[in-house]
Amino acid sequence: MIAEDSVLLREGLVRLLADEGIETVAAAGDGAGLVAAVREHAPDLAITDVRMPPSFSDEGLKAALAVRPTPVLVLSQYVEEQYATELIGGGARGVGYLLKERVSDVEEFLDAVRRVAAGGTVIDPDVVAQLLGRNPLKDLTPRERETLDLMAQGLSNAALARRLVVTEGAVEKHISNIFAKLGLQASGDGHRRVQAVLAYLKE
Q1: Which of 93, 116, 132 is the last residue of a domain?
Q2: Residue 71 above 60 pLDDT?
Q3: Last-in-domain residue among 132, 156, 181
Q4: Are 141 and 120 members of one domain?
Q5: 155 in the same domain as 124
Q6: Of residues 126 and 132, more confidently modeled
Q7: Around Cβ 128, how many Cβ atoms within 10 Å?
Q8: How far is CA 170 from the centre of its chain?
């Protein structure tokens, strides 16, 4: 199945695959449609864009994660690091992440489709380079780094507020920003707090 908000691109992919004897069982224009179609049709492969309605941010990648372990091939103009890392690093087979600008060779694209559907992995070299070269701690502001340093010392939010001379609400905002920049998904603040500190200590 194909999830792509651009009607022209979506129909173009359907026709391209049809010419190669690959049937598209469903097509959708948003992440919710992708999830629903995968549940209904159980396709051999889901091809999805990253930025789709309603917010045009990361709906496609979130949907791709939601339908795993169905093989997923992501086509995007961008590297969404937080979810790309989770998708690629999930350890499951059948995953691809290609930048649209590099999908210029039809045969290479079709080869990627077949490989991912068969359980293989196809990752754009630029995606690999960006993810491997990423140090999320560099994205933190000086105040966020100071907050994380104090978190590593075991201070509570109340103690952090006193040390930083700010409100607890401001501390919570700093910590929320830290979690987001480190790509830590909501699974209990205590757990994410430990993960954030471990990332800081590994630097």
Answers
A1: 132
A2: yes
A3: 132
A4: no
A5: no
A6: 126
A7: 13
A8: 28
Contact status, residue 27 vs residue 10, Cβ threshold 8 Å = yes
Tell which wins on pLDDT, 150 or 194: 150
**Structure tokens, 72:** 């997923």
Are 112 and 150 found together in one domain? no
pLDDT for position 155: 84
What separation in angstroms does the CA of 133 have from each of 57, 89, 126, 138, 147? 22, 15, 10, 11, 24
Strand ranges in the chain using DSSP code E only, listed in sequence order: 2-3, 27-28, 46-48, 72-76, 95-99, 121-123
pLDDT at 2 over 70: yes
Predicted local confidence at residue 129, as pLDDT: 66
Mean pLDDT lowest among 18-32, 107-121, 134-148: 134-148
One domain for residues 44 and 128? yes
Q: Which two tokens stand for residue 137?
A: 């701690």
Which residues are CB-contacts of 47 (< 8 A; sequence separation ≥ 6)?
1, 2, 3, 4, 13, 72, 73, 74, 75, 113
Residue whose structure tokens are 């201070």: 155
- Concatenating the DSSP letter of every residue in 139-185 gives GS-HHHHHHHHHHHTT--HHHHHHHHTS-HHHHHHHHHHHHHHTT--
